[in-house]
Every structure is written in C-alpha cells, then in structure tokens.
Amino acid sequence: MTAIERWKGLRIEGRRLCYRPPSPWWRRSTLRFEPEGLVIVNPDGSEELLSWSAPRGAWQVDVQRGGNSQQAGTKVEIGPSNATSLGEVVWARTVWLPSHWQAPPWDALPALVEHLRSTPAAASGLDVVERVRMLVGDLRTGGWRRPLPPTRPLLGDALDAFVAVSGVVEESGWRKHRGRPVRGEAVPDAGVLAALARRRLRPDVADRLTDDVLLAVVERHLDVGPWPFDRLLAP
User: Fold this and answer.
1) Three-state DSSP class for 46?
2) Can you list the positions of beta strands (E) in 25-140?
3) Which residue pairs, CB below 8 angstroms and at least 24 apart, start in 185-192?
4) What are the beta bridge partners of residue 48?
5) What φ, ψ does residue 227 adopt, rounded to 5°?
6) pLDDT tens digit string along 87-100?
7) pTM of the model
C-alpha cells in the first residue's frame, strides 16, 4: 500500500475504502465502504450493512474528540433514535471505534458518510478503485482545509450581518457537509444573496452597512475549502 492510499485510518484494502482507527487495540470494529452502504466489520468477523438509502434517523457516524475526561474515537450510532426531555438524541445502539495513536479524521469521515447518503452517484463510485485512490490522495494533501468556514462575531453590526447572511446562504440550498461544500458543485450568486441578506437587517444596521461590506461578508461565507468528494463521480 502506497502512502497516497491511506490517511488517518482511511485506507484501501482489497480495492475497497476502509476505516481502521489507529488504536493499540487490535480487536476492534472497522468500517468498509461499499456501493450499497457502510459495512461494520466486528472483531469476530461478522458484518453489518448500513444502507446509504436508509432514513436519516436510522444511523449516523460521528466523532468524539479526546480530552482529559474522554477518549478520542469514532461512533457509529444506530437507531431508532429518541429525544430526551432536554432535546438530547439517544440512539438505540452505538458501535465505538476508539482512536489513540493518531487523531481520527474528525469532520472528514462524517462528512463523507453524509455525502454518500445523499449522492447515489458518488456511492456508485466506491466500486471504482481509481476514484477511491484519488479521493484518499486529495484528503491526504489537505488542500481542502483552507479557507476555514467563517466564525461567528461576538456582537455589533458584524454579528447582525453574519446572522443575516448565514440565513440566506442556508435557504439558498447550497449543499454543505460539516460546514464545507463539495468541490465542483454550483455556488450561489453572491450579489443575489447580499441583496436578500440586506432585507433581513434592521433599518439602522442596514443604513450603516454598505453594499461592499455586505457583499464581502457573503463572499467570505462562500469562500470555504471544499471537500474533494467529486473524485467519486465519473469524469
């Protein structure tokens, strides 16, 4: 296996994209990406297929960042899910993939899963090893990391502009996974979004914010490093 075929636990094994969390425990669950869905490979060798076309509440992949009181790792949460009185989502079952030696691919892994669940053509691309190899290579180079998604200002006109622009960007239908778009997908028109955002501002704030300033806020929202998931699509 060449270096370009692996990144932070993601690797190509037997012409399939797999995730084997970097951990001192050899007997641990791993994940395999198939065109039909995500396969959980249990330590005893048994397998469980989670279909990409399953409803949203059926399952999801999330990550847990390590700290003083918790271990870093990846969670495959399987439904049905229920909400507590405090709004916290509780899943029926969780498959825990601990990570120690190296941080898991934080948002990249859940974002890839989200993309595959919403893009059947990309899921089909998992069957073409050349596309998978290019995807892992692009993730490894890290060109998608910059620019970062915009951060929320603390107060004042900057906060009002941020909230207004965030709202119109969300309503525009521009698809993002974990705060990032997918490379090659259409980007909304910045001028149109700026005009829509201005209508959401209080009159006094709108008077203080020039068109150029508001347009710059929109452009910053749109200028985010994109995921290279387009590699899974046919050229």
Assistant:
1) coil
2) 30-34, 37-41, 47-51, 59-64, 73-83, 89-98
3) 185/226, 185/230, 187/222, 188/222, 190/215, 190/218, 190/219, 190/222, 191/215
4) 40
5) -65, 145
6) 677 888 999 988 76
7) 0.89
